[in-house]
Each structure stands twice: as structure tokens, then as C-alpha cells.
Amino acid sequence: MAKIEDYEKLEESDIVTIVDTNIRQSIGYYDSDLSRERKRVMDYYNGTLPKPAHDGNSKYVSQDCFNQVESMKAALLETFSAGNRICKFAPQGPEDTTMAAVCSAYTDYVVFRQNDFFGVLRSVIHDGLVARVGTAKVFWQESSQVDLESFENITQDELDMLLAQDENIELEDSETDDFGMLSGTIAVTRDTSQVVIEAIPPEELLVESQAVSLDIDSINFVAHRTRKTLTELREMGYDEEKLQEIGDGHEDVELETDPEILARHDDIGADRGHSNHGYQDQIRNIMVYEAYIKLDVEGTGIAKMHRVVKAGNALLDIEPVNRLPFVTFAPLPVPHSFYGSNFAEKLIATQNARTVLTRSILDHSMITNNPRYMVVKGGLSNPRELISSRLGGLVNVTRPDAVTPMQQASLNPFVFQTIDMLDRNAEDNTGTSRLSQGLSKDAVSKQNSAAMVEQLATMSQQRQKIIARNLASQFVKPLFHMVYQICLENESQEKIVELSGQYVSVDPSRWEDKRDVMVELRLGYGEQEKEAQKLLALHQMFSQDPTIQPLYSPQNRYQMLKQILEQQGILNVEDYLTPPDQLPPPEPDQAQQMQMQMAQKQLELQERQQALAEQKAQMDAQMDQMKMQMEQMKAQASHALQADNMDLKEAQLAHKRRIDEGELAILKRTEDVRGIVSPTG
User: Fold this and answer.
1) pLDDT exceeds 60 at position 278
2) Alpha-carbon distances of 199 from 32, 65, 115, 233, rounded to whole Å
3) Could you tell me the sign of the dihedral formed by the alpha carbons of 10, 16, 19, 21, in that order?
4) Which of 271, 299, 322 is the last residue of a domain?
5) What is the DSSP letter of 402?
6) Are strands 169-176 and 182-191 parallel, antiparallel or unpaired?
7) Could you tell me which of 275, 206, 6, 236 has the C-alpha nearest to residue 143?
8) What is the enclosing helix (H) or strand (E) of 5?
């Protein structure tokens, strides 16, 4: 085992050699078994195979591959692009409900409006059905747009302010008039970068032979090969010295002989090559490989995924990556294998058998209608008269038995039974019946009730539903999640999106790193109509049941009716229904208005009566209070009067006492005087 110190940095030539080795060993390379299989299937799909066994026989070709592929494609396309929003981001909590709806609306805008999702999905489904795997590439494309805007009669200061507003505004030209006013043109550069979703032709995807999936942790090599001209490579910004190192490789020639490309264009009579060699070198087609390969470029002992762009012998670009830009769909996946089974190839045997049997019927009919004859030698005057099949023509014979039709064996009656058996076998293999295709004119008859037909159609669609779920889990869900991540990593400006009839501002750079994607899947015999009818019945029951009406709020009604319309394929729900929070207050009718006025007057009368009652009560309370105060004052006055009377009486008593005491004193003095005057006395 080598030590870390033994590892060395890879030179550009080493990287080119490693990539070339992986390209030659990958599945999908030129003239591989898979490539030959795809060409053969495409020939059967186009109806060019099988060839007639003999010249002169019927050239009829049964279209089993074409019919089954197109029926399955139509069912899947209707499921995922029939007007219903198929993907939603789940909220991370109650507080995240609005943001999750905003993320869903913006991602939906990027997928369906900025890109042709229907066209991409159609190509991916078709490639998956006829080439085992359909692939789409999702990436961020840097681009800008320059718009010229004119200005007139402004000052130099105003022009300077205009140019200083935004660094993306530049002065293109200007002129000054006699008054010093400026007029001219400015160039405004607008960022038009966006997420790009494009379908990749099957022959352009190269995968390592033991690949299980395109998960970055489980795969070591995958590449996307495309044809580019030198002019296109220069416009993409690659270094001129690198472009001179490309050289004239064998790949320029193999571009003209790729079996899958030839099979795709043979039915329209296209040229079997892309001979640009006789023209300018600038438009010569060059094979460019955008490879994703695990390399230890720095010699650290740890290999990491790198994006390597190579053309011929030149290494145009290399950078580390943490995500692969591919999303794939395998209708019939095989466990532990990247490539599943080929849907269309399973119909080749049926198409061969039906073609042979039908040709035998047609050839037998042709022989029966135009039999061969036994002619007696010398029995015809002119043998050319018998060869000519002109109506009413004459054949001159020399004897009555000169011409006798040769006896033709009858057609084997088991031929038609065998054809019916082949039809049932094709239905079993693909899950697409004549009922689900709408091709059976006897579907509803006296013996077949509508319920029975619906049951049979539903049973025949089980295989379709499985393939639809594979499409949802393998392709649709990862694609929406990848678009979300790319917007999160690259969008730097706020966007305005429509959400429930309102325009809200969106800043993808502030989104959460991870979100769960939910895919709504509906497929079947009138399944969307049945779902709409079921919801409509629930709406009527909720509206009419008095016990449920209190629970059935206007917001609940709006959501119910919105879902019913979406099931009918109507996405612009806001054109027909207005959210309850945006409704103006209802205007009452005249009767209601009169009742409201009478109720208002009655209310006003009651309020007046109540006010008078309150005033009377207040006045009564005041009178009672005044009475209490008067009583208190009277009591206080009576108490004071009593106190004054008592004081007066006490004063009178005291005064009388003093008078009495004075009189006693006087009497005493009088007695004393008398004693003095008459001592004998």
C-alpha cells in the first residue's frame, strides 16, 4: 500500500489521460451494446423494422412500440404537467407556513415559467421509455442583457448623478447643445442569470460501467458530451491557447457515424454526417466532454469530485464540486443498477409477430383477390389479355377449359386468435390497455357497465401508477430540490412572485438550507374529475349541514373551492375566487338595511332610556346624599344646640351660684356689722 508521501500532484496531461480512459470504458460510448440497443429500438419506434422477408410482399409494419410508448408518455405528461402544482415544500413548523408557500411559488415559477418544463419532461419521459434512462441537466447559467436608454436635456450634474446611481449604468454617447444641455444614450446592464433545465440526449451521457446511481457519494465518473464549434468555445470564455491544443481528433469523424444520432434522424432523410470540414474551421464540430470524476489532484491521498472540461487533447477547465447537475428517470428500474430495463424493447417481439401475421393476412388477401391461373398451352389467342386486369376486359380463348384459377389454401383461423393473444401480451408487459388508451369502441356496452369498465381501466393502470411514482421519486422531486438549492446558492437579488393573488418579495439567499419536497401524484381513469366531484360533494354537505356550518369558515370554503378548481386544471384561481381576507365588507340589502336602521334606532332609544335612567339614578343618589348631609347637619346643629343649652344652663347655674355666694357674703358682712354696732345685742 502506497503511503501519502508517495502521492504526487496531477499534471494536466495526466488528468486528460485519466478522463480519456474513463470515457472509453464507460457505458454509452460509441458503438457500445447500449448504443446499438437504442438504435434498434428507435428503428422499431419509427416503424422501419422489421423489414419484409421477400421483395413484393406486404411492407406493413405494426406500430406496437410507437403506440405503447406514446400512450404511456401521454399518461405521465398529463399527471405531472396538466395544470396542477405538483411539488410543494413542507413547512418546518407553524411559523414557517408562509415562507414554505413562498418558496414553493418561486421554485414553481423557475421550473414552469423560466424554463420549458413540459418540453423537458416530454423528452425525459420519451428517452426513459425508449433508451432505458432519461436525463435532465440543471445548472446556473451566468448571463447579462444590455439595454440602451436615451436621455435628453439634462445637465452635467444630473448626468453624473444618473451614472452614480448604479455601477451597471455606463455612458454610451452624448452631445451638448448651445445651452449646455446634454442628450445621448446610456447602456444599462441587467443581470439575467437563472437556473437552466435542459434535457440531454441519451447518447450524450456517459456513465461508469458499474454505476448504481448518480449520487455524488456512490459514483466515480459521469460525463456529458456535446458538440461545440470553436466559435462557441471562444464565446464561452475559454483561453485561446487551450483551444489551439485541441487538435484534429478521431471524434470529429465519429460524430458523423454515431448510431443513435443516425437512428433519430434517418426517418426525416437527414444527411448522414455533419461535414463542416469543407467550410471554415471556426464552425467545425468538436466533441467537448464535461466530466465529473473523483481525482486526487493535489496528491493529498483523498480523491474529491471535480468538474473537468476537455476537448481533444486540451484541458479547458477544472474545479472541485459538491453536487452533480444531472437528474435521471428510469421507468423500469433494476435494483443495484443505474440502467433499468427498456420499456420499448419489450414490445419488439410483439411488433415482429403482429407484423408477420398481419403481412400474411394482407398477402393472402392479395393472392385471393388476384389469383394465379393455369392456362392450357395454346389455349389463349393473346396471353397479354389475361395479364391485364382491366374491368370488363376480354380474354380470347381457343377452348372452354383453357383458363382455370389455381386453388389457394385458406387462411389459418388461428391467425386472428394469435393477434389477440399478442395484444393481451403487450398489455401485460406494459400495463397500457386499450381501455386506458381510449381505443376500445366497445368499452361500454350492454354487457359492460360503466363501473366494470372503470374497474378494468383502473386495474390496467397499476403499472402506469408505478412508473408515475418512479418518475416522481427519481426525477420530479430531486429536480425541484436541486432548483431550490441552486437558487439558494446563486440568487443575489430580491424577486417578486405572485402568491394567492398577491405579489410578495422573495430573497432566495435567505432561505433555509434544506427543505422537504412533497409531490402530488394523480393518475387514472378520470381520477382528477372524481376527486373534484368528491370535494364538491363535501362542500355541499358542509354548507347544508347546520351542525357543521359553524366549523366551516369562509377560509375553509375558499380552500375547498380552490382545490376543486385546481383539480379541474384551473391554476389562476384568484381570477375566479377572492381570498376571504381581501373581501370588502358586504353591503346589506334594503330589507336588511331597514332592519338595521330600526335596530339602530331601537338601540339608540334604549341607550337614551338607559342614559335617562342613569341620570335619574345619579340625581336620586345625589338627593339621597344631600338628604343625608342635611340630616347630618341637623343632627350636628341639634347636638351643638344641646351642647350650647347645657353650657348655658351650666353658666346660669354658675352665675346663680355666684349670686348666691355673693348674697351670703353680703349677709355675713351685714351680721358682722351689726355685731360691731351693738355689742350687747
Assistant:
1) no
2) 22, 22, 11, 21
3) negative
4) 322
5) S
6) antiparallel
7) 236
8) none
Q: Is 77 exposed, middle or buried (CB count within 10 Å of its CB: 0-12, 13-18, 19+)?
A: middle
- In the chain, how many domains are there? 2
User: Do 245 and 292 have their domain in common?
Assistant: yes
Three-state DSSP string of 420-455? HHHHHHHHHHHCCCHHHHCCCCCCCCCCCCHHHHHH
In a domain, 247, yes or no: yes
Supply angle C-alpha 182, 186, 187, rounded to 5: 170
Clarify whether residues 224 and 318 are in a common domain: yes
User: Does residue 280 register a pLDDT over 90?
Assistant: no
Q: Which of 269, 295, 322 is the last residue of a domain?
A: 322
Q: How crowded is residue 604: how many other Cβ atoms within 10 Å of its Cβ? A: 10
Given CA atoms 650, 652, 653, 659 in this order, what sign does their dihedral have?
positive
Q: What is the rounded CA–CA span in Å between residue 522 and residue 567?
A: 10
The pLDDT of residue 513:
78
Domain presence at residue 160? yes
- Kindly report, residue by residue over 256-273, the tens digit of the pLDDT: 556 677 666 665 555 554
Task: Tell me, yes or no, whether 179 and 244 share the same domain.
Answer: no
Residue 27 has φ and ψ, to the nearest 5°, of -80, 135
Note the pLDDT of residue 443.
38
Taking the CB of residue 286, how many other CB atoms lie within 10 A of it? 23
Select from 179, 84, 70 the least CA-distant residue to 129.
Answer: 70
Q: Nearest CA to 448 among 437, 430, 435?
A: 435
* Helix H or strand E segment including 415: helix 414-430
Which three three-digit cell numbers place residue 190? 441587467
Q: Give counts: helices (H), strands (E), the chain.
A: 20, 17
Question: Buried b vs exposed e over 474-512: b needs ≥16 C-beta within 10 Å?
Answer: bbbbbbbbbbbbbbbebbeeeeebeeeeeeeebebeebe
| Amino acid identity at 274 | H
In a shared domain, residues 309 and 256: yes
Domain residues for the domain of 251 are 1-30+220-322
Least confident of 15-24, 253-262, 597-606: 253-262
Domain-located, residue 372: no
Please, are residues 128 and 134 in contact by the beta-carbon 8 Å criterion? yes
Judge whether 155 lies within some domain. yes
The secondary structure of residue 338, as a DSSP letter, is S
Contact 478, 457 (CB under 8 A): no
Q: Quick one: cell of 383? A: 396471353
pTM for this predicted structure: 0.75
Same domain, 237 and 293: yes
| Residue 44: band (very low, low, confident or very high) from pLDDT cuts 50, 70, 90 | very high
